[in-house]
Specification:
Layout lengths: L1 H49 L17 H27 L14 H28 L1 H14 L1
Helix pairs in contact: 2-3
Amino acid sequence: MTDFWKLFFHDLIPICICVVLPTLVIWLIGRVKQNETNRKAEIMLKALDNGAIIDSDFFKGQSGSKTIKERLLGRLTGACVTGVLGLVFILVAIIPEWPGHWDYSDSPAPMLIILGGILLAIGIALFIVYFTGKKLMAKEIVSEEKQILGEK
């Protein structure tokens, strides 16, 4: 009977980490957003009852309003991370003198090359999107910065 419990708890830990934990995090985030919306709705209803002037931007969230520059920098960060990971995976699979030396008949090297190629392609695509977006959105970035500096 102890073998059953050992196997049960041995399998339970990965299930809790991979299934229960992400589900709880998503549920908690949803509850926080729902409570925030409910509070704003309560304030709005009280303001309507008192006859106050209502701002139309009241329900717009501050967290979702990223500037163009912030979005482009996020893409640049993603490009760097995925590109470097792709290169590392490809190098680990290709270099034969790597510590742990792969035997290609039963090794993860082909899978590492495929995964590295995919990550490298995503990284290159994000670099292209970053540089094209930077070039195309230069005027909008300047006007957005002026608007932000004008408000402060």
